[in-house]
Write a structure and sequence with these properties.
280 residues; 2% strand; globular
Length: 280
């Protein structure tokens, strides 16, 4: 049987390999697009960026000693239904809270907003995002989170490391793989500013994701939460009737706004307090 020190070294080595693959995947993908003279939307670069973390996870589990015991693939519904429900509603509720605050102060306006149409678009986006986020969450909450947690690092280091890697993985996506016109629909701030602050936002989101994982030890609540986040926020930001007053994006934007970041941080840390009480 391997000693604890040997097992720890294997985990650290594999996490290092995983992190390098994740952080390089998008840049290599963009270089591939440039070499092949293909557009970012049609080239293989984005596909490489998407699949590289999953391939790294599968290889490390199958061939590098990580094993499959902590994938979180079982739903584990018993005793966790409330966390599944929370996962479905946390992003809509906090995003709507952010919008209400913005609307009260006149920072957000709705010109001809069609609730019925928005809900239809949101509903249609759920299934594609559910399918997309199964492999993603198999990586972030099914591999990176449990492997780091097994090293017994403190909670705040765990949030910071997972969130920073997850956020940094998105940098090539925002810079290269999203059409510039689409990004203009997301925000009025520069792409460089949006990309930088989005990492802070993702770290705040990570607190919620990690705590839900701690409470359930399953990836499926995270899959549902990620599904709703992608479908709800993207549908909202691309709705032309939703407008943020000039200069207020960094305050009230649903992704990179200070208020949104604070809301997710408060909810995440509240979940941590609940978890610690249940463990006491």
């Amino acid at each position: 049987m391997k000693s604890k020190d040997v097992k720890r070294r294997i985990k650290v080595r594999n996490l290092t390999i995983f992190t390098i693959v994740v952080l390089l995947s998008g840049w290599i993908g963009q270089a591939l697009n440039v070499l092949m003279d293909t557009s970012t939307e049609e080239g293989l670069g984005m596909l490489l960026w998407l699949v590289a973390p999953l391939l790294a996870t599968l290889c490390l589990r199958a061939f590098a000693g990580d094993g499959w015991y902590d994938t979180g693939i079982k739903p584990l519904f018993r005793g966790n239904v409330k966390w599944y429900v929370l996962s479905l509603f946390v992003f809509p509720v906090l995003t709507l809270s952010n919008i209400v605050i913005g609307n009260i102060f006149g920072w957000i306006t709705f010109s001809g907003f069609n609730v019925s149409q928005f809900l239809q678009i949101f509903a249609l986006a759920l299934i594609p995002n559910f399918l997309k986020n199964i492999p993603e969450e198999f990586v972030w909450r099914g591999y990176l989170t449990p492997k780091l947690a097994s090293l017994k690092i403190n909670d705040f280091s765990l949030y910071l490391i997972v969130g920073s890697i997850w956020g940094a993985w998105h940098i090539p996506y925002y810079l290269y793989f999203v059409d510039s016109e689409t990004m203009k629909g997301y925000t009025s701030v520069s792409i460089e500013v949006f990309t930088t602050i989005s990492i802070v936002a993702i770290i705040a989101w990570t607190i919620v994701f990690v705590e839900i994982w701690f409470l359930t030890k399953s990836i499926w609540p995270a899959v549902l939460m990620h599904m709703v986040e992608d479908a709800f926020i993207t549908s909202l930001l691309l709705d032309s009737s939703f407008q943020i007053s000039g200069g207020k994006d960094l305050l009230i934007h649903p992704v990179v706004g200070i208020i949104s970041i604070m809301l997710f941080t408060v909810v995440g840390l509240s979940l941590r307090r609940i978890r610690l009480k249940t463990q006491a």
